TrEMBL record:
Catalytic activity: hydrogencarbonate + H(+) = CO2 + H2O
Family from the record: Belongs to the beta-class carbonic anhydrase family.
Enzyme class: lyase
Function: Reversible hydration of carbon dioxide.
UniProt name for this protein: Carbonic anhydrase
Length: 200
């Protein structure tokens, strides 16, 4: 924690030393206009700004265990994930949504392998609710096949959200499925025509 504290203490000084940084942070104080909604896992090994090179203010992030998008329901008024998606679509009007899964995903791996999570009931219940029972069995430590199938499912789930559906119909937003390999840094994108994940 001390490393984080020292970095946070020095942030003001670093900004003050660089005129470009001052202008950037000054603009951010006036509001945000991110380029994309980036939906990814809570996993500490997944760092959206490192993967994309995004600067402050460029990504609107939604992080959940297993980068899960809940199935859309009419009674989702109090759902944090649905609220984040709706805000990105109707208020920020981002032009792209990226669902980024990753190798070695504990959430997807636990679901695909049917692991006993009785000691972590909140995790167990979230995975039962948010992740599909139709994930393929995947004995590999990377769980790449299961994660990639999971990403496809989350992109499909997004299409059921009225705020996404409206913007898709108007040609105002694009959906992307990505797979990030933690151990190599490779990022692959889903190509619907071939149904394959190919390197960017």
């Amino acid at each position: 924690m001390e490393t984080f504290i020292q970095h946070a203490r020095g942030l003001t000084a670093r900004i003050a030393e660089r005129r470009e940084e001052q202008e950037t942070y000054g603009r951010l104080a006036a509001g945000q206009s991110p380029l994309a909604l980036f939906i990814t896992c809570s996993d500490s090994r997944v760092v959206p700004s490192l993967i994309t090179g995004a600067r402050p203010g460029e990504l609107f992030e939604l992080r959940t265990a297993g980068n899960a998008v809940p199935v859309y329901r009419e009674d989702m008024a109090a759902c944090a994930e649905a609220a984040t998606i709706e805000y990105a679509m109707r208020v920020l009007r981002v032009a792209d949504i990226v669902v980024c899964g990753h190798s070695h995903c504990g959430a997807v791996g636990a679901k695909a392998r049917g692991e006993d999570l009785t000691g972590a009931p909140a995790v167990r219940d979230w995975l039962a609710q948010a992740l599909s029972d139709e994930l393929p069995e995947d004995p590999e430590p990377t769980v790449s096949a299961a994660v990639q199938q999971h990403v496809r499912q989350q992109v499909d789930r997004l299409r059921a959200y009225p705020c996404v559906r409206e913007r898709l119909a108007a040609g105002e937003v694009n959906l992307h499925g990505w797979f990030y390999e933690v151990h190599t840094g490779l990022v692959a994108a889903h190509h619907p025509a071939s149904d394959l994940f190919l390197p960017l």
